[in-house]
Design brief:
Largest sheet of chain B: 7 strands, mixed
CATH class of the largest domain in chain A: Mainly Alpha
Number of helices of chain A: 15
CATH superfamily of the largest domain in chain A: Tetratricopeptide repeat domain
CATH class of the largest domain in chain B: Alpha Beta
Radius of gyration of chain B: 37 Å
Helix content of chain A: over 70%
Largest interface: A-B, 74 and 88 residues
Structural class of chain A: mainly alpha
Distance between the termini of chain B: 63 Å
Oligomer: heterodimer
Order of helices and strands of chain A: HHHHHHHHHHHHHHH
Shape of chain A: elongated
CATH architecture of the largest domain in chain B: 4-Layer Sandwich
Structural class of chain B: mainly beta
Number of domains of chain A: 3
Helix content of chain B: under 10%
Strand content of chain B: 25-35%
Strand order of the largest sheet of chain B: 44-43-42-57-58-59-54
CATH topology of the largest domain in chain B: Purple Acid Phosphatase, chain A, domain 2
CATH architecture of the largest domain in chain A: Alpha Horseshoe
Number of strands of chain B: 66
Largest sheet of chain A: none
Radius of gyration of chain A: 25 Å
Strand content of chain A: under 5%
Number of domains of chain B: 6
Distance between the termini of chain A: 77 Å
Chain lengths: 271, 1171
């Protein structure tokens, strides 16, 4: 029963959605006028803070948020906005503290968990970064691919081989074995000393999307190059050359692809 | 079958034939006043003009009328003189006044609105010469009379149509109230010498099946208007939390000590001119720029059992919050919590009463309730504001607060619960069908059911027990047994029904689970209990609790499941655990609405062999699509027994480039509903990927308003395109203002483009307003976009970004809004990685990309300043340009902007460089600049400095030779399909005086774009809302042969007719036949097959060679004879069959009748000419 609180504050960042079509300066000017006649308008204060943020006028944004906190200490969204601004300014500890206040009111916020995952990453708190990414996935009705990718990124950085593999499996079970995800998995496998498994993944991409065979063979050649497996790399390049032949003439004509092919031919000529 | 028939009628018949006739043509019971002496009745009765049309007569309560007596018992039609449209000898002939005395004749009639009245009224009348129509004292229509008053001296503006009954437009949305109503008509002559006068009417409408609790134009409102702009919170700090729930004479709310409300007011309440609101209470205009909220509340009577299944119909200009007993139950055009300064998201519909979705399932309690409304402006300086509303409730059999429930809550003397079956061996098979009150059922000899309780019912909340969260208050408390024995409690009650029913809707909240019985039949199970009701014993525990916050809707079907007369409903309520601290229930049982289709059909996720058909129904059921090659030949059926309201039918195995007619149906045990196939309900599969087919694309951006101008943009397109099919429809985001809610999508998309939705696939990218609700989830839920490459392109795994192919065009929809995608960097498997793979993979001739935030705009947003625009120039546009993207379509800025052909004005894969407009280099790319072609790209004309499109000044089409990398992209902002606002500098000039330097056309003009692609040509036009072309350009591609020969490393002699590999075949022929200029390839030459009934020449060719060569096959009986040509390229001969493109290669088959080779000899040759 929010209505029993001394000051009701369920601020909505989007109350002014349609006004957002005006220029930023005009919107700020209008918000100034509104707040001049009603300085305690909590919605407007939060809105103006966001405008100042968009305008990169951080001091003014903080001033509005500080005032809002005094008028309406029970507001939660001001803390989320403050955390975002502080994150932009690389002030991660303060951002984390602000986010903590937000979580008191809204512990189930997916956005806040994803934000805290990133802040934790920036501050080297790997365990928390992973945990928040996992919670964000768990809370969402249908988590977007980007949430899985955040988890994978954190697992690659801080997690174990098993937990990273599990994160990839989780993502694939949700969105399917899409080429961009497989490509990333192959890169990770190569980085983590499993190039043979990476090669298997590259093969899967080529089987699934033959039109990508040429570029994926080049990716694989690049992987073997990095591991100084010259014969493997050479083999991959030969395969790329073969794959080029089966490419549609239209793809062959694209300048970016032609340049890749010419570069391939050059590298094949090198001893 | 009954339900189906109803929909069929809707599809086939005018609405008027579906409506109930309330007043029939030739109806009796009219009273009328003739004025044969030419005297104004106002002369003898000074308030005649204010009272005659609303008299208290025959049980109808109007006003006191003391004027001349009306003649009663008249039967229509009424007339004097000859009225052509009336059958002779019918109706009531009136006395013919003397010439010069023929003025006005007055009529009225009592009409019965029945139990709930009628709405959706339609008026048809034959009037000679003009008339004013009143319903219950309100003017509802005029016909042929002009002015604000319709007194005795008012003459018709022209001689009426005396031959036909015409539909008369109604003022506002009048309704027939339940009970008695009064319809009055004054009929006016065009001149006092006119020889004839006549009247007959037909009034029809839809019977309302609701109990009206608060009618429009209701009395008893208290209101608070503050005109000086002072926020009431300034003097009463808890105003915002108390005003809508004050304790009043008969209602117990909270203590309210804010500004006093004025009492005794009638709706409508308004100031200024709100289109259809009149009468009621007119407020004072507020001080300038102080048009803040005004407040109102009234007590409403819930009767003895209250009401459930409420319906709110409201006209709020501009928007409102609605509260019932202190809880917010509805919002119209407003977000968040209401404060004095809260503004609405739109300007409101001031012409119509709209059904407003209710929050949750609010109920009206027995006795006095309090309804409160705050009305809000869209702008503080708006000139008008107003409200009227009607609150009604559907009839129910059992309602939230129904009383007379009898209970068996088995508790022994020690306070422990016990199994009633221990006292009555057949308890479990008899208790729910026992003869009770006036219901006759089975003999029952178990423990007695006692009491007369009203729901909601739950354990009394004392120490050790808890509350069932979602139950309404107040509730009836019952004793909870001792912990460890709280298993099951039993309830039953009787109710009467006027008719037998086959379909019921049960809305029930039962904590933790329940079995429901009707007249001894198990009809529903709530929560995690076994379906088998023979397991309904006292010891049966629910597996897990049902949702104790939100009631569950269950539809019950069965022949005469409710009988006319007395019925018995019984509930056994089960806990999840014998120690559970709470147990309770409430329910609403009512006749189920007819099964209805609420949305659609609409088409999604299409491909060469697939199509997705979607629609929404009000009740769950199976999804059925029937389709075929004509509306009367639906040979194929897809049925999904998915029991859903959101129907998504993916059809596969279709033929490419084929038109199918279709119908949709939803069926459940209670019936079915369908929208039948028709000539304008069809879908077309995509052409085989890679084939050249003329393609028409319609593009709209930021179309999410519901304004008339938006519809004008749509109509302009429909008028222009005529019967031609729209092959691809693109929406550029912000499709539903203000927050992308499902309801806003209903209004801004589904209600706005009905014709196109059912025969054209809708594709879109994500806008910022879409993400204002649940991070865009409604947008995702409403659409079915390809995530697995189903429609061509590389699988993206996300509906927020995806690609698809249509013929030889590759479309890419990119997410520039969601931070995780818009700020994505290469290497993490996200959108940027996908985009590059997708671009590397496509072999289509044309690439068109769409995303909401334009890289270059000085419209209502400035792409130099805002991160979402800047982000697009970091990786997105560099990648698109790298792979030759031809056209990039954006919205967000509510203007029209269009660039020249440019390349390279971006951050070039960098997050440091913002590449703002000041860094644009207007030099040609060959000189290190960003311009590929600075012309306007048009073959038709040019846009002048005033923004007009003229037929002069055409610079010619843009050219993108493939042999030099297809360099150059055109960018366009199409953000004014819903409204046009302003430029980045704040100006509202028609032409932007400070445009982004890439743009050569900048118009503050609503419109949409038509893009037509045909072979190697793409034409783009911007069309305004009047259908005029306001911009035009064309992109042409050539240089295919040159690109082909360039790929032959080491070949220096690249001419078309040369033969550098000395195999006897010129390079031009090798190019067409898909050969190589690097070695012998005689196998590619055409072959003759004589084994069939025809002589068949066959070969393969490079599909794109048709773009820059003319190919002719010739045959002759003699080498030196006459050669007969057959064109292989467009237009090809009917003897030529072209195969499907595979990897850019297609087969060519030429059939020649043997009769053309009478000597059994035929020569063939292929001629190729470079265009």
């Amino acid at each position: 029963m929010n209505y029993l609180l001394p000051i009701v504050l369920c601020v909505n960042l989007f109350t002014h959605a349609l006004q957002a079509h005006e220029t930023l300066d005009k919107q700020i000017q209008k918000a100034n006028e509104t707040l001049k006649s009603n300085p305690s308008d909590t919605n407007e204060l939060l809105y103006r803070a966001r405008l100042h943020w968009e305008h990169k006028d951080y001091d003014k944004a903080f001033a509005d948020l500080d005032r809002l906190e005094k008028i309406a200490p029970l507001s939660s969204k001001l803390h989320l906005l403050k955390a975002r601004i502080l994150t932009d300014l690389d002030r991660y500890e303060e951002a984390s503290a602000s986010l903590g206040k937000f979580f008191v009111a809204e512990p189930q916020s997916i956005d806040a968990h994803l934000l805290r995952s990133k802040i934790s990453d920036y501050t080297g708190k790997g365990y928390q970064a992973i945990a928040d990414a996992r919670v964000a996935i768990k809370l969402a009705k249908k988590p977007p691919l980007s949430s899985y990718l955040q988890l994978i990124a954190m697992e690659r950085k801080y997690g174990s081989e098993d937990s990273t593999a599990e994160a990839f499996a989780l993502a694939k079970s949700a969105v399917g074995s899409i080429p961009s995800l497989l490509e990333t998995q192959a890169e990770w496998l190569a980085e983590s000393g499993n190039p043979e498994q990476a090669s298997i993944i590259y093969t899967k991409i080529r089987e699934k999307t033959p039109s990508l065979s040429f570029t994926i063979w080049l990716d694989e050649a690049y992987m073997w190059d990095k591991l100084a497996k010259k014969s493997y790399a050479y083999h991959a390049r030969l395969q790329a050359k073969e794959a080029w032949k089966s490419l549609s003439p239209k793809i062959q004509q694209r300048k970016a692809m032609t340049e890749k092919y010419k570069s391939l031919l050059l590298s094949l000529k090198k001893p | 079958m009954k339900l189906t028939l109803q929909i069929l009628l809707i599809a086939a018949l005018p609405a008027s034939l579906l409506a109930d006739i309330i007043v029939a043509k030739g109806s009796s019971g009219w009273s009328y006043l003739e004025t044969t002496n030419g005297d104004d009745p106002d002369g003898s009765d000074s308030d005649y003009d204010d009272t005659w049309y609303n008299p208290s007569v025959s049980g109808y309560t109007g006003v006191t009328y003391d004027g001349p007596a009306f003649t009663t018992s008249g039967t229509a039609p009424f007339h004097y003189g000859a009225i052509t449209g009336f059958p002779s000898g019918t109706g009531t002939p009136l006395a013919l006044p003397a010439s010069g005395d023929r003025k006005v004749t007055y009529f009225y009639k009592i009409i019965d609105g029945g139990a709930y009245g009628y709405n959706n009224l339609e008026l048809n009348a034959l009037v000679d010469d003009g008339a004013a129509f009143y319903l219950n004292g309100q003017l509802i229509a005029t016909d042929g009379v002009i002015g604000s008053t319709y007194t005795f001296s008012r003459e018709a503006s022209s001689a009426g149509d005396e031959t036909t009954y015409d539909g008369i437009p109604l003022i506002g949305s009048p309704i027939i109230q339940p009970g008695l109503n009064l319809l009055a008509v004054s009929v006016h002559q065009v001149s006092d010498t006119s020889s004839d006068l006549g009247l007959d009417i037909e009034l029809s409408g839809t019977a309302v099946s609701y109990n009206t609790i608060v009618s429009s134009g209701s009395s008893g409102w208290n209101y608070l208007q503050i005109t000086n702009g002072d926020d009431p919170m300034d003097n009463d700090t808890d105003f915002d939390t108390t005003w809508f729930n004050p304790t009043t004479s008969n209602y117990a709310g909270t203590n309210y000590d804010g500004p006093s409300f004025s009492a005794g007011t009638n709706t409508p309440i308004y100031y200024g001119s709100v289109e259809v609101l009149s009468g009621g209470t007119e407020l004072t205009d507020p001080d300038p720029d102080n048009g803040y909220a005004f407040y109102m509340y009234k007590e409403i009577d819930g009767g003895t059992e209250g009401y459930a299944s409420l319906n709110l119909s409201m006209l709020a200009d501009d928007g409102a919050f609605v509260y019932l007993n202190g809880e917010l139950i509805a919002r119209d055009g407003v977000l968040g919590d209401g404060t004095f300064t809260t503004l609405t998201e739109g300007s409101g519909d001031e012409e119509n009463y709209d059904d407003i979705p209710l929050i949750g399932n609010p109920s009206i309690r027995p006795g006095t309730n309090l309804l409160a409304v705050s009305v809000h402006q869209n702008d503080y300086d708006s000139s008008d504001m107003g409200i009227d509303l009607q609150l009604s409730a559907a009839p129910t059999l059992v309602t939230t607060y129904s009383g007379e429930w009898a209970m068996l809550n088995p508790i022994d003397a020690n306070g422990d619960g016990y199994d009633p079956a221990t006292a009555d061996a057949d308890f479990n098979t008899t208790w729910f069908d026992q003869s009770y009150a006036s219901y006759t059922g089975s003999a029952y000899d178990g423990p007695a059911f006692t009491g007369s309780l009203a729901t909601p019912i739950q354990y009394t909340q004392v120490s050790g027990t808890g509350a069932v969260d979602g139950l309404e208050s107040p509730y009836t408390g019952i004793t909870s047994p001792n912990s460890g024995t709280r298993n099951t409690a039993y309830f039953l009650k009787t109710f009467t029904s006027d008719e037998a029913l086959d379909a019921l809707k049960l809305t029930i909240l039962a904590d933790d689970g329940a079995y429901i019985y009707l007249n001894g039949n198990h009809v529903a199970t709530v929560g995690d209990l076994p379906d088998d009701a023979t397991l309904d014993t006292w010891g049966q525990l629910a597996g897990s609790g049902s949702d104790e916050d939100v009631p569950e809707e269950i539809f019950i079907f069965g022949s005469d499941i409710v009988t006319a007369g007395e019925n018995l409903i019984a509930v056994s309520l089960h806990n999840t655990s014998a120690t559970s601290s709470d147990l309770g229930f409430q329910m609403v049982l009512q006749r189920a609405d007819d099964l209805e289709i609420l949305r659609g059909p609409y088409l999604q996720k299409a491909g060469e062999s697939i199509m997705t058909v979607r629609w929404r129904t009000n009740q769950e059921g199976a999804s059925i699509v029937r389709y075929g090659d004509s509306p009367t030949n639906l040979t194929e059926t897809v049925t999904l027994d998915n029991n859903t309201t959101e129907h998504i039918v993916e059809i596969s195995g279709l033929e490419p480039a084929t038109k199918y007619y279709y119908e949709i149906e939803t069926a459940h045990a209670g019936g079915e509903v369908k929208i039948e196939a028709s000539t304008d309900q069809s879908f077309q599969t995509h052409p085989v990927a890679g084939t050249d087919v003329p393609t028409r694309i319609w593009v709209i951006g930021d179309s999410g308003t519901t304004r008339d101008e938006k519809i004008a943009v749509y109509d302009a397109y429909l008028n222009l395109t005529g019967p031609a099919h729209t092959d691809v429809w693109l929406m550029l985001g912000d499709n539903a203002y203000g927050s992308g809610t499902d309801q806003e999508f209903q209004e801004a998309v589904f209600d706005s483009y009905p014709e196109l939705l059912k025969d054209t696939v809708l594709w879109s990218c994500l806008g910022n307003h879409e993400t204002d609700t649940d991070d865009g989830q409604p947008y995702i839920d409403i659409h079915s976009f390809p995530t697995a490459g189903e429609s061509g392109g590389v699988a993206s795994g996300s509906e927020r970004y995806y690609s698809f192919d249509y013929g030889n065009i590759h479309f890419i929809s990119i997410d520039s809004e969601t931070a995780s995608n818009a700020q994505d960097l290469p290497g993490g498997g996200g959108m940027i990685d996908w985009l590059e793979l997708d671009l590397q993979s496509t072999d289509k001739d044309w690439i068109i990309a769409l995303f909401h935030h334009g890289p270059y705009t000085k419209g209502s947003h400035d792409s130099d300043l805002k991160d979402k625009h800047i982000n697009t120039r970091r990786y997105i546009t560099p990648l698109l340009e790298k792979y030759g993207c031809d056209l990039i379509l954006n919205g967000h800025s509510h203007v029209y902007e269009r660039s020249m052909l440019i390349n390279g004005h971006h951050s070039n894969f960098s997050t440091d460089d913002t590449s703002d407009s000041s860094t644009f280099n207007s030099a040609n790319v060959t000189a290190g600049g960003h311009v590929v072609d600075a012309g306007n790209g048009s073959d038709l004309g040019s846009v002048d400095a005033a923004g007009n499109f003229n037929s002069s000044g055409a610079d010619g089409a843009y050219e993108k030779p493939v042999n030099v990398g297809e360099q150059g992209t055109v960018y366009s902002t199409i953000g004014a399909s819903g409204h046009a606002t302003n430029w980045a500098d704040g100006s509202e000039d028609f032409v932007n005086l400070n445009p982004h330097p890439v743009h050569i056309v900048n118009l503050l003009l609503m419109g949409s774009s038509i893009v037509e692609v045909d072979g190697n040509t793409l034409n783009f036009q911007y069309i305004d809302q009047d259908g005029n072309v306001r911009d035009d350009f064309t992109i042409k591609k050539d240089g295919y042969y040159e690109a082909w020969i360039n790929n032959h490393n080491g070949v220096t002699d690249q001419a078309f007719a040369e033969d550098p590999d000395h195999d006897g075949i010129p390079s031009g022929i090798e190019y067409v036949l898909g050969g190589t200029a690097l070695g012998p390839d005689c196998v590619i030459l055409p072959k003759l097959d004589t084994t069939g009934s025809n002589l068949v020449f066959g070969f393969n060719r490079l599909v794109e060679s048709a773009e820059d060569t003319t190919q002719i096959f010739e045959y002759s009986t003699e080498l030196d004879g006459t050669w007969t040509p057959l064109n292989i390229t467009d237009p090809k001969s009917s003897s030529v069959i072209l195969g499907t493109s595979v990897g850019g290669i297609q087969s060519v088959t030429i059939n020649i009748s043997p009769s053309l080779a009478p000597d059994g000899r035929l020569f063939g040759r292929l001629r190729v000419i470079k265009d």
